[in-house]
Input
Amino acid sequence: MLRAREAVRNLPTYHPPLAGRVGLRLDFNENTVGCSPRVLARLRSLTREDIARYPEREPVEAVLAAHLGIQSGELLLTNGIDEAIHLLCETFLEPEDEVLIVVPTFAMYQISAAATGACVIAVSAGKDFQFPFSDLLARVTPHTKLIAIANPNNPSGAVANRGDLLEIAQRAPLAAILVDEAYFEFCGQTLMPRWRDLPNLFVARTFSKAYGMAGLRSGVLVGNAEHIASVSRVSSPYNVNGIALACLPVALQDGDYVRNYVGQVRQGREELQQAFRRHGIPFWPSEANFVLARFGELKTAFVNSMRARGILVRDRSRDPGCDGCVRITIGTMEQTVRLLNALEETLAEVGALERAVK
Output
């Protein structure tokens, strides 16, 4: 009888709660107003012939390389960061290899790595979700072939020190080091192009967050040209669809749109954190486009009450160390005003203003 590989049969499932998302979308860290109007205009200009052609990735990779200030051979466009993670695993992992991840973090690191048959080792974040530099290094062995680090991390928004990340790459030369910079625009810290000193270093970026193009599924993996060539061998030549390729250069040209949105998110992030301080709600300072806060036993009532007010937020209680926690995405300032008003009403309704959060 035909059966899936044992590694696949034992994979954890990841089913993001995407159904029934009616309201202000502050639950999935998306751009809350969508892509640049220029991107929308480019979409509307596409013809039947554009749709009929197989997508050509390389010209757009050249445009993106120029935008990033790197060489074309140092990057690969991918179907979101999810595919970049998958391709790294397929390129560098053998069954029984070891993979290190810091938890809590993005679920696809574990899923893609475990699918190869590799052993995934979870290293717990430190107090207040601080990056566990020493603990992570202590788990590195000659069998460690991939270390995946989200920076800023999701769901905490915490940032690892650049020097620590570079030292990990230096001290684990047999491992591919993936630094996932999905939330780079909201933080500004990057390791590009440090792979020229440390060829085992890879950086991933996405156009799903600040650029508002999550539905087009476009991301990029950058790194040492020789290693990127190896990763490209695993990738389909048509992995990024033609609509995304047509829109990406236009999105890159409209830097003002992205900067304006990011500026509003940063301001709203601070205002939300100030509101949590005023009300004694425990939270973790974030460098991403979201804030994680602990509502304890009130978290389900909080999520439901916010939804009743037309605002969607994400229960993250199942993540390690996140019991009772809710993650809230930040949008424009107008949306933040709406969020803060709903927050005041909800906290009063669920009783969070009358007793300490447990």
About this structure: The radius of gyration is 21 Å. The chain has 14 helices and 13 strands. Residues 6-30+256-350 form a domain with the Aspartate Aminotransferase, domain 1 fold (CATH 3.90.1150.10).
